[in-house]
Design goal:
Helicase, Ruva Protein, domain 3, 12 helices, 11 strands, 4 domains, Beta-Lactamase, alpha+beta, disordered N terminus
């Protein structure tokens, strides 16, 4: 059985797209961090250079008694200009200007004595978020100045300006990004290759599952899938193997004349059909019931003092609506049986849970709940939800059969070499012989408020698990209902 090409392509493309998306996010984050870091480092270096230039210029002017012309030939200031430009590739120029914006000293000697135009301040480059800083660096070339006022003694005589260029910053940013982008690009390629390989592995395992199902459809119930890992596909393979074991066991029993080959499948199909009918009925009945209850409530509120005859009719309507509501709830519980979800679980813990709830419900009703679960297997293969529902139905029936109180016993007993009996017994009123033959029929009930669904659910749950239900009851002596289930032995499977 071949998996359609579309599935393989879809898996490959989707996983590759996820890898690419993650990589693009990583590139965006890396770029943003680099932009912010580049701007921050450049601003710090520019401010440091401006402070050093201001210190040297102020000291030289003070020593010359305010004669700022000495700055044109000051060797310390010239050495600072030269070393700053050489050590920081993002700096464009350094200058000392007088109050009339004429350059007293400049890193470009040709501009000494020339007018220096105003440029945006360095704070404008740092402002905004990372996106705004990125747009400034990648946009039109611009130079930003760090400005420090100058004083000779107590007299201001100009300012220092250190310009940083976005063109030079962009070159440094690209240089720092290049290595990171190459690493990310390599990561993208590796991620895409891993995605393609993962998609191939998944499709191979899906193909194995489909092959197993095709073998079962052809009647090859002895075929087994290899269980690899502990993920959902491994669980699916285990479930299919379990289904194969049950079908093969049913076929072997049929060959020995013990049971019908299609018993399990027929029960499952019948149950699924009943579940669909119950679901439809519950849906169709819910809306009319809600409307009737709503209007009956309005009638109650508006008719404060109805005549006794009308009061009796209203009460009958309310009681019947409540009974219909219980029937709908029973339908919804029956819908749960449309599909089995088998797994390994602790049967002893499940019995303890059911007994605990029974004790809570029995408070104040003189009912003693006893649990005998020491012989229940710790690991049992089945559907815990369905078994919990079946046992709860039996416990509820037992409690209702003991109106005057009594002992309710929930027990687990070995049944041969490969079986377990789950028994719910009571000391209630018991059942007459004419009732015993019909108690498991759907909708049959002897209770005025019953739905006739509870015991039918118990029977269907037992059949779905490959078991059966046995009933023993005598009027006045109580009832014992046994769910006899097969027990599977846990076995090791190969794990790749």
């Amino acid at each position: 059985m071949r998996i359609p090409t579309g599935l393989r392509v879809w898996l490959t493309l989707s996983m590759a797209a996820i890898a690419l998306m993650v990589s693009l996010i990583a590139i965006a984050v890396h770029t943003g961090l680099e932009v912010h870091g580049t701007v921050k480092r450049a601003a710090d270096r520019t401010r440091a250079a401006a402070q050093q230039a201001a210190f040297l210029a102020g000291r030289a002017a003070t020593e010359a008694s305010g004669d700022v012309t000495v700055l044109r030939t000051d060797r310390a200031l010239a050495a600072l200009f030269e070393s700053a430009l050489a050590g920081d590739p993002t700096l464009l120029d350094l200058a000392v200007i007088d109050p009339s914006h004429i350059a007293i000293a400049h890193s470009n000697p040709a501009l000494i004595g020339q007018r220096v135009d105003d440029r945006p301040r360095l704070e404008a480059l740092e402002s905004g978020d990372v996106l705004a800083q990125t747009l400034r660096l990648l946009g039109a070339p611009q130079t930003y100045d760090e400005v420090v006022d100058l004083r000779a003694g107590n007299q201001p005589f100009g300012e220092v300006r250190v310009g940083v260029s976005t063109t030079l910053l962009r070159e440094q940013l690209i240089a720092s990004l290049r290595v990171g982008l190459w690493v990310i690009a390599a990561g993208v390629l590796i991620a895409i290759l891993m995605a393609v390989l993962s998609a191939q592995v998944i499709t191979t395992r899906v193909r194995a599952v489909v092959t197993g199902l095709e073998r079962f459809r052809a009647g090859q119930f002895g075929y087994r899938l290899a269980v690899e890992g502990q993920d959902e596909l491994a669980l699916l393979a285990s479930s299919i193997n379990a289904l194969g074991e049950r079908l093969e066991s049913a076929r072997q029993r049929a060959a020995a004349g013990e049971t019908d080959t299609g018993e399990l499948l027929a029960a499952t199909g019948q149950l699924s059909a009943w579940a669909k009918v119950a679901s439809g009925l519950a849906h169709e009945m819910a809306d009319p019931m809600q409307a009737a209850a709503l209007h009956l409530g309005h009638l109650r509120r508006k008719w404060k003092e109805p005549p006794p005859e009308a009061q009796r009719h209203i009460q009958v309507l309310e009681d019947e609506l409540k009974r219909l509501e219980q029937i709908v709830l029973g339908f919804r519980r029956f819908v749960m049986l449309g599909e089995m979800h088998s797994q390994w679980f602790d049967l002893r813990a499940l019995l303890e849970e059911v007994a605990t709830r029974a004790r809570e419900n029995a408070v104040g009703r003189r009912i003693e709940v006893a649990l005998e679960a020491d012989q229940a297997p710790g690991r049992f293969w089945g559907d815990p939800s369905l078994l919990r529902q079946a046992l709860s139905n039996l416990v509820s029936n037992a409690e209702q059969a003991m109106r005057g109180g009594g002992r309710l016993t929930l027990s687990a007993r070995p049944a041969g070499d490969d079986g377990i009996d789950l028994v719910v017994s009571d000391e209630g009123v018991g059942m007459p012989p004419e009732v015993l033959a019909r108690v498991f029929d759907l909708y049959f009930t002897t209770k005025s408020e019953g739905t006739g669904i509870g015991l039918a659910v118990v029977k269907q749950v037992a059949q779905l698990h490959g078991g059966r239900v046995e009933l023993r009851s005598q009027p006045g002596e109580g009832t014992a209902i046994t769910i006899r289930l097969p027990v599977r032995t846990p076995h090791l499977v190969s794990v790749a």
